[in-house]
Amino acid sequence: MAPGKSRLLDGSGQGASLRGRPFPQSAYAGLQKSLQQEWQFVQRVVGGIGGEFADVQKAISELFLPALCRDTLTEKDDVRLLLHGLPVKHAGMAIPDPTKSAKTNYEASSLVTSHLFAALTGSKAFRSQEYVAVMTDVKSEAKSRKQTTDDRTLKSILSKLPCDVSRAIARGKKTGQWLSVMPSTINGTDLAAQEFRDALLLRFARTPGDLQSHCDGCGQKNSVQHAHECKNGGNVIMRHNEVAYTVGDLFSMALQPSAVRNEPLINSGCPAVTVKDVNPSNPALTHNLHKNQGGDLRGDLCIRGAWGKSIDLIADISICDTDAKSNISRDPAKVLEAREKEKKRKYLALCLQNRRHFTPFVVSTDGLIGKEAKALLQRLSSLLAEKWEKPYSVVCGYVNARVSIAIVRATHLCLRGSRVPFSHFSSRRPQWEDKAGLSLFRHSS
Ligand SMILES: [Zn+2]
Asked: How many angstroms is it from 39 CA to the middle of ligand 1?
């Protein structure tokens, strides 16, 4: 018996050619959230059938995962093969090996239903209170044991990897929300095939094999790290905007669209630099005077009522690469913390002077969220939960997923987006640029 086999393999028995299919995110969600649940149900009710799932596991490791990553997974120690069985919160993909999970599933199910079984076979009277108590205790114990086992497995896998790879994969414990959501254009949680595959490869510290050899913005040799930091072509700015717009959009739903403003001046009441302030012999001095008053400083978002009624919050978005050369020797969480402090030094005092709150919204290119940003997202979730009258945990999941998906899209833009400006290849422009020139145009009729 091989439940699920027929759907993983195609009619010809040669294996579904998922390799060429353009919807890896949907394929993953379908297997992880639906198909897998079906065979786990069978495992819960029939004992001793682990061995029967050998073909399913073979299909997962030899067909499904290579097709999902569009890569060959021939090495036995490929981290993707070692980690796919662990939960997303343990840097895995939540597709456990069914040959191994069968025993645990059957044992847990037998224990959970032990009181019900005893009552049905007549050895005990049924008491709903006792049934619920047994069920709760067993579930809690099973969860705690699984946590311990998963911790141990992840630690053992990471200990055998090079330091930099282990460091990147360990971050996957906190950056996998995008993997846990159902793709949906309505909810804004869908990812293109390449976005999904690149994010999956980066999650396992792999470089996408088909990355351009040279950067089309500056001509330098391309790499993931270069793509994250090359400022040519404005992709770094667009990456920043992608996250800013998502946060702004969520706050406009939680409050109202007019409560969210883009690029606010930090000190909107800053007096203009007067003639007597201008020092012609030292223009830098004049500039600094204006700057110290916060004259030319802007945040990314101004949100009225985020932390309290009638108070503005200035949020400044920052995305950093925790694997950049300058950060590689530091703990990724400390890198985000340092960026938060730097932003606060620059903006906080000026914001407070203007009776405004300030939050540095710092995230990493792979989706780690800084402490301050996390607090802001919690506040956002609680505002939305209150407005929509939905459970906080559900809304929180939605908010985190939206932000996580935005970061995946933003990172992909830097990795794959063109850096060639339009003006470089537009050679047939007319010799006028605004509407006045249109009067030179005449129809032949
Ligand atoms: Zn470049």
From this structure: 48
